[in-house]
Structures are given as C-alpha cells and as structure tokens.
Specification:
single chain, 120 residues, alpha+beta
Amino acid sequence: MTVLTMPTMACSAETPLREASGPAIEYDSVSAARAALRAKPDVVFTVANGWDIATDEPARTIWSFSPHDYAAYPAVVKRQVVQERGGVSIKMSVRCEASKTSCDDLVRTFSRMNGFELPR
C-alpha cells in the first residue's frame, strides 16, 4: 500500500517521489475511505470523467477516487483547503494501492492541477 504526499524537494522522472512517513489519509484503504465518506450525511458524491468525487463542504475537502480503468487504480486523492500563517492553501494527500510508478504519476498529475509543477 502506498501513501504519498507532495514532496518539498525537486526530483527527476527517474527519482521516485518521497512517501509520507505516516498515514497521510485517515483511512486504512481506498475502499475504507469510500465507505466512510458514503456514510457521512454531509458528503455529496458526483461523477466527473469517470472519477467518483466526494465533496465534504463542512470539512472544505474534495476526495477524488480513480476509475477502474485508470493506471493508478485503486487510489484516492484528498484535497483540503487549509488556512495557515494568514494564507489559504491546498493540502493534498494520496492513498494509492497501485504500482509505485503509477502512483507517482497520479501525484504529479494532481500537483499540476493544483498549480504545483513537479519535475518529470
């Protein structure tokens, strides 16, 4: 099981991304995350381009679950708006149960979507 967070150091395509030292997401698996979020009354599920999107407005969090045909399946990306040091940022955490390469590609893709470009 792979748990990744956005790295703070530059890396090349040949260099695997650094993994979190502890749980980055509070659920033990992608399926546990999906089940727990489905049980929360404030979470709204939609589908966009094959991805299950769970929006938890009270927690200011969006969860993106990869589709079955995605290379990094099963995976979930958690993006949460947080206030830190007087500013607002997006905290991204990933639980990916696919290959390290596919999981790293998923993190790079979402990092670009967040406006944080990682080297390939």
